[in-house]
Each structure stands twice: as C-alpha cells, then as structure tokens.
Amino acid sequence: VPDSADAVLDGLDPEQRAVATALRGPVCVLAGAGTGKTRAITHRIAYGVRAGILQPASVLAVTFTARAAGEMRGRLRLLGAGGVQARTFHSAALRQLQYFWPRAVGGEMPRLLERKVQLVAEAGARCRIRLDRNELRDVTGEIEWCKVTQTVPEEYATAAAKTGRDVPRDPAEVARVYTTYEQLKRDRGVIDFEDVLLLTVGVLQDRPDVAEAVRSQYQHFVVDEYQDVSPLQQRLLDLWLGGRDDLCVVGDASQTIYSFTGATPDFLLGFRGRHPQATVVKLVRDYRSTPQVVGLANGLLAQARGQAAAHRLELVSQREAGPEPSFAEYPDEPAEAEGAARRIRELMDAGVRPSEIAVLYRINAQSEVYEQALADAGVPYQLRGAERFFERPEVREAGLLLRGAARAAADPDQAGSGIPDQVRAVLSSRGWASEPPAGSGAVRDRWESLAALVRLAEDFAAARPDAGLGDFVAELDERANAQHAPTVEGVTLASLHAAKGLEWDAVFLVGLTEGTLPITYAKTDEQVEEERRLLYVGVTRARFHLGLSWALSRSPGGRGSRRPSRFLDGLRPGSTPRGARGAGGGAGAERGSGGRKRRGPVQCRVCGRTLSEAGEIKLMRCEDCPSDLDEALYERLRAWRMEQAKAVGHPAYV
Ligand code: ATP
Ligand code: MG
C-alpha cells in the first residue's frame, strides 16, 4: 500500500497524472488500447480517497464486466482505497432496485425471468404467429434490442427501417410478439435482464425521493469502456448525476464492439460537445505491447473506415522489441489447433505460465477443437464465460464446508494452522487430492475449481496474515456477490468479445477466415468495420507473443477453399493491401468497360472462395461448406449473446 496520496501517483506518466489529479469532473480520456486508461482511473479514485477529497462510499465506478469490477476493487484495496463501489451498470442498478423496491413500488421485487426464449415462444403462440427456431432467436434478439434502445412496440417498424436492421419477420408481427411478451411478464410477476435497467430508470424518473436518496449517496462517477455505453445506460448515468457533472469517462472508439446491444461511441465522441468545460486528456503511450504488436494494431486501424476510424489514435509502444507476430496457414481446423497447442507447449517449456496465454476466437463454437488439442497436449485450460465459478456445485459445497469449519475454528479450543492448510484439510476430507487427476473432462474441471479455491486462500493469507478462516469465508461471499471468480491456472480460451480490457503475455488469434472474421452475418459496412475492431481488440490483448492463424478447410480432407480474413490483407506476408487490387473484392455486380452491368465472379457465401462449378454456383456455396452453417451460426450467435449476457452479469441466464 503506497504510504501517501502522492505515492499513489508514482508510476503514472504525465498525462495519466493529469487524469488522476483532475478530481472534479467532467473529465474525458480518449485513448487507444493498452495506454493505461483503466490504470489511470483506478489511481484517480485512489488518489482522491487517500488525499481525503473523495469519500470512498460516495464514489461509483462503473466497468464493463463483473470481472473487471472485481479487479478494480482489488486494485483499489491495494492502493489503500477499499470500500469504493466498482460495479457493472447492471449490478449497480440491481442493488438500487432491490433496495428501493419496497418504498417505490411496494412488496417484494419480482423474480428475474430465467427462460426468456420460452416466454417469447409463448407470446408468439398467443399472437398466432408461428416462429421457427431461428425466428424465435432473432425475434428475442429484436426485443432485447428494442429494450436497450428504449424503442416501444409502436416505434419498432420505423426504428428498424431507419437503422437498417435485418428484420426476422414482418415488423408488425415482431411488435405484436413484443407487446404480448411484456404482458405475459407482467401477468407472471417476472422481470427480464433489460428490465433491471429500465425499471431503475423508471423509478429514478418517477420518484424524486428515491432519486434524491441515490444522488446523496453517490457524488462522483467514473465509467470505463465508455465507447460501449448504450443509450439506456447513458440515461441511467444521467439520472444518477441529476444535473451534476462530476463524471470521468474513459474509452477508445476503435474498440466499440457491442453495437449489437445498442451500444454506441456517440456518447464518448460527443462528450466534449455536451460538456464544453470538460478536461480532455489523450494518452498515446502503449505500455502493454511490444512495438511489433503495436505496429500490427496500427496497421489494422490504418485500414479502418467509418466514424470510429476518424477518431483513431496511433499507438506508440513503450516496451522493448519482441518477436514478430506470426502468421500461420493450416490445411484444416484440427491441424490449426494442434499447431497452436504445440506453440503453447513450447512457450510453457520456455517458462511462460499457462495463465499468461490465451486463445481467442470469434464464436464460442470454435473452442471445441482447441479444448481437444490442448487436452491432447497435456495443457491445462479454462473457458472464459463458461459456467459461473461460484455457482459450480463443488464450489458451493466447499463454501458450506468452509463455513462450518470457520464456525468450529472460532472456538478458541480448536484449528491453529494457517488458512490455506485449513482449506486443504476441509477439501481433502471430501476426497480432494493435491495433485491433479490425469486427463481432461468433468473430473479435471472439478479439481481445477477446488485448486483455485486453495490458491485464493494462499493469496488471501499472504495479503492478510492476521486474518482467520472466518475472514476468508467472508471474502468468498463478497467475491460470489460480485461474481469475481479467482483465476484458474490454465490457458484461457475465450471469445474476442469476452477478452475486452484483459491482457496476456501470449495471444493466439485463431480461425481468421472470411466468414468467421468478418462473420457471415456482418453485411453492412458498419458491421464489417465492427468486425475489424474486434480483431483490433484481439491483437491489442498481447503483451509479447502474438500468433494469427487460419485453416483452409474445416475438416481434414476438405477441399481447402477458405480464404484468410480480408483484414489481414497487406499485413500478412505476401499479401496486398485491400484496394490495391482494384474493386474486385466482392461478389455481385460490377461495371464493365461499356458501362453495362455484368455479373462478377460468384463467391461462396460461407467462405468467400470463388466458385467455378455450376452446382456450387447455384447454391452460392462450396459443397465443402455445410448447408446448415447459417443455422449453426445463428445458434452460435445466440449462445454467444447468452455468454456476453453472463459476462456482464445477466442474472436471468445463470
Ligand atoms: P484497454 O483499452 O485494453 O482497456 P487500457 O488503456 O485500459 O487498455 P490498462 O489495462 O490500464 O490499459 O494498462 C495496460 C497495461 O499497461 C497494464 O498492464 C498496466 O499496468 C500497464 N501500464 C499502464 N500505465 C503504465 C505506466 N505508466 N507505467 C507502467 N505500466 C503501465
Ligand atoms: Mg481498460
């Protein structure tokens, strides 16, 4: 713990210091990946608290994921500023709603809806609108979009047309299902994920006494990852502020990757316009990545188009030179996964810890082949966004046992050994061995989560030598409430979306083919640009090693027809930048020399290969690419949305 407020500023560069010492908002930090935005705002809060200018309980810091919130609380504690609320929008709103519900509405707060899709199906049936599986998922997605963008059913058709949305059914039908879904929820006394924010906004708007109570509690607001704030979250923030402007936001327009939830960088980019007196700070020094990684990230952004691209910030690496990013092409996906597993083993043999390595992909369904390859290579791994740590049965059971043991230990006649030993003893009484079981699968997962608890106990005991087992159990409760899971020792497998804000020594970006990145359903220019930003987010997660790879076909013996992602054109060795080849990039109509429209080559709508066989041209896809891919992709998209929802603390999906 730094010994003074000024010592909190040590280790910040002049611009970061400017952020940390600008203790009155409005403050806006515009900066690229790895420039220390999160670090600067964390130190700002700690400095304010340590200098006695900010009361810890009056600060509300909002971050994007529960994990990021947990990390921020941990850092603040280490800087001597414990007790500050760092939460996601959702968890902050849920707490306020629970607290104020009896006063504002009366009675108990309704339960959170668990099976949303089922209720949407029921709503469809009530309206006599038959929805097949895909339509059901898409209509559910549309309802979510309406809610986060505060679009009421009557406005849906106009709003969808205006924003160019891919409407799954006649907009009037979607609107009817939406209305009925809302009705059914009311009838059953349940609320959904989006309602938590909507209701909190509603209560704060309608009940000045509640708004006053919240405003007198929180006076200083800090928001991380502000480029991905949704209009509804912005509304909530405005209500919390209530006309005050002690707000500090940080963000990077080039990392806007959640537009599908209604998020928009407009609030970040328009901040100065809304607050002309704001202190605006730009950070350009990249402390995370080597010049090689930063060079690739800059190269990627140089090709970006659109609104966010106009605000891109060139990064300047502060680190020593490292290895060149590697580009690797494989005949098929299993070979690609084996290649990654082999390189990971080499890194581990060279002393890199598995928890410092990540494999990142576009959609979760890509993880399977990597799980297999890593298990075969004997590499431990963990899936991010997988089942929540504190809800796992073995962790719950361990929690109960530890609680019992803590009660017994409180008896002065019992237990004088250290916390980690006590935890090990409790777990081994239930058959937990200190050595991992052979192989992968459920038994191994169970062992890993209990091992994570032991490591947590070790860290806790090191940080608080005087604490007892009861304190550790309290720490577990606190972490469970905040969904702040301990790090499981292992290579991280995660989607690019879930990797936001995080960093590793070595990052493998895999499956970089047309059809996967950009994903097939990214159709408009804006959607394709968002896919490019996703790759930018992926590249900038790496501190040192960066591997990029793709496979020419899905399975061994496939036709080898996929093309590497267009975003790598001009960046991977031997390729030409896009545009340099003329306008012949895509399928469809082109202008011939006589000004007459002529059909260009037909390309596979899945992998982008130019098709030559008549049968394939008719299908507009290679035989190699599975016919149900669209459906599978939607399935994956849905699963991925669910995962994102979990990542942001969506209680309805737990
Ligand atoms: P992202 O856009 O990915 O969220 P960020 O701008 O929030 O990135 P941080 O995560 O705060 O960046 O910082 C990136 C890394 O650089 C971290 O490991 C952080 O500790 C380190 N770092 C930041 N500022 C400094 C500094 N002044 N000196 C040394 N290291 C720093
Ligand atoms: Mg950050």
Describe the structure.
This protein is an alpha/beta fold and 654 residues long. Among the domains are: 5-95 and 198-283, P-loop containing nucleotide triphosphate hydrolases (Rossmann fold, 3-Layer(aba) Sandwich), CATH 3.40.50; 114-191; 389-482, no CATH class. 45% of the residues lie in helices and 12% in strands. The protein has a 6-stranded parallel sheet, with helices on both faces. Strands 11-16-15-12-14-13 form a 6-stranded parallel sheet, sandwiched between helices. Helix 15 runs antiparallel to helix 23 (525-539) and helix 20 runs antiparallel to helix 21 (442-463). The longest helix has 22 residues, at 442-463. The model is unreliable at 580-599 and 626-654 (pLDDT under 50). Bound molecules: adenosine-5'-triphosphate (ATP) and magnesium ion. Adenosine-5'-triphosphate binds at residues 11-13, 16, 31, 33-39, 252, 255, 287-288, 501, 503, 540. It catalyses: Couples ATP hydrolysis with the unwinding of duplex DNA by translocating in the 3'-5' direction; ATP + H2O = ADP + phosphate + H(+).
